[in-house]
Amino acid sequence: MITGPGELALVMGVFGGRSRPGLMRLDDALSALGPDGVMEQRVADVPVAQVVGTVDRPYDFDQDFRLRNDRLRLRWQRLAEAMSTGVEPPPVDLVQLGELYFVADGHHRVSVARELGRLVVTARVRRICTVAYGMACLRAVHLPSKQAELEFLRRVPLPDDVRADLWLDTPAEWMRLADAAQSWALDRTLAGRAPGDRGELAAAWWAEEVAPVLDRLRAAGYGLDLRDVQLYATALAVRDRSGSAVWPADLVQRLAAPRRRTLLSRR
Which InterPro entries does the record associate with it (predicted)? Predict the structure, then answer.
C-alpha cells in the first residue's frame, strides 16, 4: 500500500522504463569475456551501480533495474515499503566478473535499493575470473568489441596488469592490433630473438614496441585523455595509412593534424 506522495513518486519512477533495454545476461557476458575459473566466494557490500546484469531474468527489469513486468508490481511495492521503513532484507546472491555483478537471486532487492538511493547492497558473491576484463562501464552494447578483445588476447596473451585497462570501441581495431602484434613477433623470431612462449612474446611486444610509442606521444602531450591501448591503436592507424612498417618521425604532427582541422572547421 502506497501511503504518501513520496512513495508514489518512487513507484512511478521505477515503472517508467519499459521501453529501455533489459538487463545484460551473465551467459552473454561470459561468452564475450571468456571464463577462466571460479576464484572465490564471499559476503561483501557491493556498489549498487556495478550490479548491471542477471543470471536468468533479462526481461523483468530494464538496464537500470526499473521493473518492466507488471505482474511483479505488488511484490516490488511491498518490498519498497518495508525497506523504506528500515526493514533489511537478506543478502542478495551475485556473480562477479571483473567490476561487474550479475544477480542470481534478489532482483527486487537490488531494484528497490537503487530507487532508495542506496550506494551498496549486501551480497553473497561468487567471483568468476575472465580472460578479458569486465570494466564497470561495460554494457551489453559493448559485448561485440569485448568478444574481439577476447580473440585478441587468445592470440596475444598480455599480462594481467595490462588487461585490466584494455578498451577499444570496435572489433576492427582489435583485428588490426592483433595483426600488428603478430607481425612484430614474426620479425623478432626471424631475427632469432623469440622468447620461450606466447605469454613472454606478448609481454615483450607491449614493453618493447607499445610502451616506447606511448612514452613518445605522452611526452609530447598527445593522447593524455586516452587509455594506453586506445592511444597505440590510434597511432597504429596513422602508421598504416602511411604504408610503412616504420614509425614516422613526424608521428605526433600526423596525429595532431586531424584534430587541428576539426578545430578550424568549427570556427
Answer: ParB/Sulfiredoxin_sf (IPR036086)
Whole-model pTM above 0.70?
A: yes
- Helix (H) / strand (E) element for 50: namely none
The grid coordinates listed for 48 are 549498487
Q: Tell me, what's the pLDDT at 245?
A: 84
Say how far apart CA 34 and CA 55 lie, in whole Å.
16
Rg of the chain in Å (alpha carbons)? 23
In whole angstroms, what is the distance from residue 126 CA to residue 93 CA? 8
Separation CA 150–CA 127 (nearest Å): 19
CATH of the domain spanning 5-130? 3.90.1530.10
Of 216, 206, 227, the closest CA to residue 255 belongs to 216
Question: Per this entry, what is the length of the chain?
Answer: 267
> Is 125 within 8 Å of 101 (Cβ atoms)?
yes
The pLDDT-based confidence of 10 (bands split at 50, 70, 90) is very low
What are the domain boundaries of the chain? 5-130, 156-265
- Report how far apart the first and last C-alpha atoms of the chain are (Å, whole number): 58
pLDDT tens digits, 186-232: 988 888 887 678 899 999 999 999 999 999 999 999 988 999 999 99
Confidence of residue 259 (pLDDT cuts 50, 70, 90): low
Rounded CA-CA distance 191/253 in Å is: 31
Distance CA(161)–CA(175), nearest Å, equals 21
